[in-house]
Amino acid sequence: TGWIEVVCGSMFSGKTEELIRRIRRAQYASLNVIIFKPKLDTRDKKNTVMSHDGTVIQCKTIKKSEEIYKRVKDCKVVGIDEAQFFDDGIVEVCNTLANRGIRVVVAGLDMDYKGVPFKNMANLMATSEYVTKVHAICPKTGGLAQYSYRKTKSKKRILLGKEDEYMPLSRAAYVEKSVKKSKKVSGKKNKD
Prior knowledge:
- This protein is of the alpha/beta class.
- It contains five helices and twelve strands.
- It is elongated, with a radius of gyration of 18 Å.
């Protein structure tokens, strides 16, 4: 039988790097593999997945999760990057593939910039056999970072970005920055 492995964490925690490492090990074992990423992720070239450390691997870029079914012929291992950006069907797709005997390795953010879990990732973690939570290092405290703090003023839930837009923070640093940010916002409202 197959199974689902979820690699989750904040921005800059090494999720994609770990996905690529696991897929490369499967390739080394001569297993037929394929990787998918959502069309929404336009940070890298269309059919490549690239980690923040510069590691690159080929993939298929798709719009909807159900497209995966058509492309997994004879695959033993399926990799899915940035799973939080896929439609709600990604959970059913992953479970169906695992039920068919395929190993499914999924990487994605577990929470948005407000610290709210992504529904797809939460459901995948609940139904998977293995969950690996990876952490970045907080530049403020030196401790483990589990939050993706947004440095820009955008209120969009999904904002593709890199170091310019996000910073990994520990719980203590995230709470401190969030409190300061809300005080600034409420102070501006009081002045108006």
